[in-house]
Specification:
The chain is an alpha+beta fold. The chain folds into two domains: 1-48; 100-203, TonB (TolA/TonB C-terminal domain). Helices cover 29% and strands 21% of the residues. The protein has two helices and eight strands. A four-stranded antiparallel β-sheet has the order 1-8-3-4, with helices on one face. The protein has a two-stranded antiparallel ribbon with strand order 2-5. The longest helix is centred in the first third of the chain and has 46 residues, at 2-47. The radius of gyration is 68 Å and the shape is rod-shaped.
Length: 205
């Protein structure tokens, strides 16, 4: 009996020793594992380089076509005022101015004759103005018609137009009249000079 008790005691001690060894080994392993984890964490923290965040370029805003610039309406410049055209009227000869053969006075005696007939040259139509701003002009002329059918003894009876221009129109009127040609007047079937002829020449655009 005593031997059995010793054996049981020895086994119990052995088991207890083994359990202590196992528990100690487990405690050592746990302790080492914990330290190793902290060391690994420290190492990881120490070894891991700091990564700077990548620079993110700003997203460009979508392009929008600019709205057209609205300009204020342009007021048209006022048109230049056109010069006022004042109608002109040249004087006529008096009542005693009557066409007649040269040397006769028709107011005192009756004379039969054939009057001259226009053939060519200035027809009597309006002539162009020297300058547009002149507006209008006229020249009245008296003249005789020679036995050859040409104007002679040309006289300016009246001239109207813009101030300072009448002399120019008088010259042009004389020139136009000088181009006229007539079938001469006649008396007793003979060509004669016919006095007291009258013509108004107008100038306009």
């Amino acid at each position: 009996m005593a031997g059995n008790d010793d054996n049981n005691r020895s086994r119990t001690i052995a088991v207890a020793a083994i359990l202590l060894l196992v528990a100690g080994a487990a405690g050592i392993m746990w302790f080492m594992g914990a330290n190793n984890g902290e060391d690994e964490k420290d190492i990881a923290v120490l070894d891991t380089p700091e990564v700077e965040p990548e620079a993110v370029e700003p997203t460009p805003e979508p392009w929008e076509e600019p709205a057209p610039e609205i300009l204020p309406p342009v007021e048209p410049e006022p048109l230049p005022e056109e010069p006022e055209i004042v109608p002109v009227a040249c004087a006529f000869p008096g009542d005693g101015f009557i066409q007649a053969p040269h040397g006769f006075r028709p107011t005192q005696q009756f004379v039969e004759f054939d009057p001259p007939e226009y053939l060519s040259g200035y027809s009597g139509s309006s002539l162009p103005l020297i300058a547009e701003e002149d507006g209008e002009a006229c020249v009245s002329l008296t003249y005789d018609i020679s036995e050859r059918g040409r104007p002679i003894n040309v006289q300016v009876l009246d001239a109207k137009g813009r101030e300072g221009t009448t002399s120019d129109y008088m010259d042009r009127a004389r020139t136009a009249l000088s181009t006229r040609r007539y079938l001469p007047g006649a008396r007793n079937d003979k060509p004669v000079r016919i006095d007291n002829n009258f013509l108004i020449i107008r100038f306009s655009n």
